[in-house]
Amino acid sequence: MATQGKVNAGHWAAPALEPKRSHRFVLLLNTVPAYVIKKVSKPNFTVAETPHKFMNWTFWYPGKVEWDAVTFTLVDPVRPNAALALLEALKAGGYHYPNEGQENNTEMTVSKFRSTQALGSVKIQQLASSRSGTKAEVKENADQIVEEWELKNAWIQKVQYGELNYDNDALVETTVTLRYDWATMNQGSAAKWANNSDKGAAN
């Protein structure tokens, strides 16, 4: 009976089991405000593979780990001008126009240090949905972090400013690609609270 209770506690029929929702997130970075960001891809990694062939067999060995670029899309308002903020981040990273004079240090080029400093800290926070419990418990733990990804040494690799079109009145969107060295993931307080609730239900 105890085993059956533990299985049911983690089943989708259990009211305490809450899935992560794709629309509950916040992307935090210094360049643009969080409320203009429409969507963001989560970090992904790929483990390279190396084969070794012996007679009639092939044996595979894991190799280097490479993290994929992260892309996010934002709706560009007039104020604050997100398009201008991204261009300023590029210039802060070391880029300059060919016609700029010596007073603007034309010998400076884009560097990783300046680019990462211009972008600042980059965090993707996934938020919790409303949970069961007393009113005090729900109020205390609502909209807290389920998981938090932090991109290490992130810099702007690509910006696509979208397109303008007389045929529609859609909002202008900008797509930004970020390159980084690696990402860390921390479990937030809301996820820990949910785990403790599940344990209590299982007991």
Can you put this structure into words, describing what you see?
The chain is α+β, with helices and mostly antiparallel strands and 203 residues long. It has one domain (16-202): Pnp Oxidase, Chain A, CATH 2.30.110. It is built from 5 helices and 10 strands, in the order αβββββααβαββββα. The chain has helices spanning 2-9, 82-92, 112-119, 135-141, 189-202; strands at 25-28, 37-40, 45-54, 57-67, 70-75, 122-127, 145-152, 155-160, 173-179, 182-187. The strands form 3 sheets. The chain has a 4-stranded antiparallel beta sheet with strand order 1-6-7-10. A 4-stranded antiparallel beta sheet has the order 2-5-9-8. β3 (45-54) and β4 form a beta hairpin. It is globular and about 65 Å long.
Tell me about the largest β-sheet.
Answer: 4 strands, antiparallel
Strand order of the largest sheet: 1-6-7-10
What oligomeric state best describes the polypeptide chains here? single chain
The fraction of residues assigned to DSSP E strands is 25-35%
CATH topology: Pnp Oxidase, Chain A
How much helix, percentage-wise, in residues? 10-25%
Number of helices: 5
Please, what is the average pLDDT?
Answer: 81
Alpha carbon gap, first and last residue: 11 Å
Could you say what the CATH architecture is? Roll
Low-confidence stretches: 196-203
Q: Give, in order, the helices and strands.
A: HEEEEEHHEHEEEEH
- Radius of gyration over C-alpha positions, nearest whole angstrom: 23 Å
Instruction: Count the domains.
Output: 1
Structural class: alpha+beta
Give the CA-based shape: globular
Task: Tell how many strands the DSSP assignment holds.
Answer: 10
The CATH class label is Mainly Beta
